[in-house]
Amino acid sequence: MPPSSLRVVYAFAREMHPKTSDVFIQYGTAGFRTKANLLEHVVYRMGLLAVIRSRVKNGRTIGMMITASHNLEPDNGVKLVDPDGEMLEQSWEEIATRLANVSDNDLESTTAEIIKQVNADMSLKASVFIGMDTRYTSPRLAAAASNGVIALKGTPKEFGIVTTPMLHYCVKCRNDNTYGTPTEEGYYEKIVGAFKNIRQKLPVYGEYNTTLYVDGANGVGGKKLNIIKKSLDGELDLHLYNLGGNGGKLNLNCGADFVKVSQKPPVGVEHVPFQRVASLDGDGDRIVYYYVDDKDNMILLDGDRIATLLASYVTELLKSADATDLKLGLVQTAYANGASTRYITEELKVPVSCVKTGVKHLHHAALSFDIGIYFEANGHGTVVYSEKAKKAINNISKDGEPEQRKAAQLLLNFIDMTNETVGDAISDLFLVETILCAKGINVKQWLQTYTDLPNRQLKVTVKDRNAISTTDAERRCTSPEGLQTRIDEIVSTYKSGRSFVRPSGTEDVVRVYAEADTQESADKLAAEVARAVFDLAGGVGTRPELPT
Ligand code: G16
């Protein structure tokens, strides 16, 4: 493409997607995320970048997902998906941020600079898959994404409303046809097909029952489960709530993030004591479970629980298949409940590593194991299997002793049911249901494996959240001066106390996490630390109150 063709980049920007705001925007934990009305030029420019990225990757397909995931309806966002279905390579985040923030007048020259910097061959073909969530602002932004792709002569393909993990899956399949068919139907065939296969090998028994209630967060995940439900032939009896009708608002008082953070059941779901409920987030990439007991207490089974359930089952299958030479490992973040980490290392004897928040960090760390399980406590996670592991399991499924073959075949179905590209609420739901069924257990029995330390999460608004920097996988903060010392002093006065603070990469807040021996102490510890953040990091509005 001759440099003169870049004129069209400016023309599209000026005529259709002008930059109307000077607010600086940064590629954060999961792409750009802010109020939807500040995003159109950003999304257009990411369309340009996706084409450049595709060409740097020799024409392989890149994904663009329009979503603000767990955020409320007025927000939106965009993130890029790399050819293997994983998050955009981190070294490109700075490039994305630069392109998003230049003026329209500088857009053409900055685009040219980036093309040169990354050495993109602009004569190559470029392909970009675009998906969006259910927000009313998403279609307009998806159109801006397409225009960005067209401006640099790439080929956009719009998937309409899909879950974020479906888009990741389709990108991966488009670039590697051994993984599956790059369509929504292909996704159902693979994941739901594997679930049905496994159900034939593992009939329902024990305390497990097939009824599952689901909170769809009024987003896309519930809608897709409604399609899947019709093909389940009674293998799972889904009761779906919060599907987006009846005035229900996206992620408002419902969905995985609300349930996890507020530790309250969502509105809009019928609650039957001891009935397990799966709660999804707005774009279907997170899942937590919970139930309400006969005294109306909500009991949460979060991402840590799902991770431990997966680790214990995969360990059992590896033993039965006599494949224990494959190295299984688990990846968590600082938000992981201390009790879960203890259980994994001491009881399951599986190695654990702790990394920074953001699936991009977890995914990367999980790849260092033959089989890597990663989960954030907020319900975002999956399992990745190395080629070595897949080959070994495949060989055992053909040549092993009868019992080993059986376990290896189950593992192969399990692998097929997993969306390895990214955390996926729908795939995770089928994995969890499979394990509960295989173990013949109900939610109360699932809960018995370990006892969570009581914990609390709070948000504090400050003038500039980037004034907080952290180290040691976000467990300690290095600025502003004095804050970590203050946190240490506060924590030392609590039994089993632990607390950390970090700037969110998806909302304009500082997050505070605290755990302690009782709920009362965890609540008080979180509030004390929130006040320290407010005092030392430029709090805005009302100083957080201590619980009464
Ligand atoms: C995104 C990321 C997650 C992260 C979450 C919260 O989730 O994909 O890895 O845990 O944001 O991040 P932060 O605390 O930085 O705001 P989602 O579901 O919103 O895409």
Automatic annotation (TrEMBL):
Record-listed Mg(2+) binding positions: S69, D281, D283, D285
* Cofactor binding notes: Binds 1 Mg(2+) ion per subunit.
Active site, per annotation: S69
The protein's superkingdom reads Eukaryota
Query: Keyword annotations for this protein?
Result: Carbohydrate metabolism, Cell wall biogenesis/degradation, Isomerase, Magnesium, Metal-binding, Phosphoprotein
The segment(s) forming the Alpha-D-phosphohexomutase alpha/beta/alpha domain are 61-101, 109-172
Provide the E.C. number(s) assigned to this enzyme: 5.4.2.3
Q: What class of enzyme is it?
A: isomerase
| CC cofactor | Mg(2+)
Q: Name one GO biological process term.
A: cell wall organization
To which pathway does this protein belong? Nucleotide-sugar biosynthesis; UDP-N-acetyl-alpha-D-glucosamine biosynthesis; N-acetyl-alpha-D-glucosamine 1-phosphate from alpha-D-glucosamine 6-phosphate (route I): step 2/2
Phosphoacetylglucosamine mutase AMG1 domain sequence ranges: 181-288, 302-440
Q: Do you know which SUPFAM superfamilies this protein is assigned to? A: Phosphoglucomutase, C-terminal domain (SSF55957), Phosphoglucomutase, first 3 domains (SSF53738)
> What catalytic activity does the UniProt entry give for this protein?
N-acetyl-alpha-D-glucosamine 1-phosphate = N-acetyl-D-glucosamine 6-phosphate
The reply to whether Cell wall biogenesis/degradation figures as a keyword in the UniProt entry is yes
Give the molecular function GO annotations. metal ion binding; phosphoacetylglucosamine mutase activity
Taking every annotated instance into account, which residue ranges of this chain make up the domain Alpha-D-phosphohexomutase C-terminal?
487-531
Where along this sequence does the record place binding of substrate? E376, A377, N378, R502, P503, S504, G505, T506, R511
- What's this protein's family per the entry? Belongs to the phosphohexose mutase family.
- Tell me the function of this protein: Catalyzes the conversion of GlcNAc-6-P into GlcNAc-1-P during the synthesis of uridine diphosphate/UDP-GlcNAc, a sugar nucleotide critical to multiple glycosylation pathways including protein N- and O-glycosylation.
Q: Which PANTHER family match?
A: PHOSPHOACETYLGLUCOSAMINE MUTASE (PTHR45955:SF1)
Q: What is this protein called?
A: Phosphoacetylglucosamine mutase
